[in-house]
Design a protein that fits this description.
The protein has 138 residues and is of the alpha+beta class. It is 41% helix and 22% strand. A 6-stranded antiparallel beta sheet has the order 1-2-3-4-6-5. The longest helix is centred in the last third of the chain and has 19 residues. The chain starts with a helix and ends in a 12-residue tail after the last helix.
Amino acid sequence: MSIEEIRNYCLSLPYVVETMPFDDTTLVYKVGGKWFAVTDLMENSKVVVKCDPDIAIELRDRHEEITEAWHFNKRHWNAISLRGDLAESFIYEQVYNSYMLVINKNVTPRALRIEILEAVAQYNTKTDSRATYNSDLT
């Protein structure tokens, strides 16, 4: 799996904006102005995603390709290696879960959150989103 595939997937999700707030290589993906994924063009071997703290630890324990995200709050952010044995569908699912977690917990005002969730519902009915949001994991 490549950073370009992650980038294309992130940008396919409703209301996602790609920014480069730090330098010319770090890509930050936001929904409703809040971060949900980070990649680096130079170190193109991982994606960093937000995760429920309890699930984050469980995923790290279960998969050697998932570690604490360097320079991020270790309770909430995981780094996922794109070079290991994880299935692409699993990686897409983690990105999608991060996206939905941020929408549901961090996007304000409520009216914007509702607008985004309605767009996500339409997106999910029109596309194969590659991942199904699991509310138990966020």
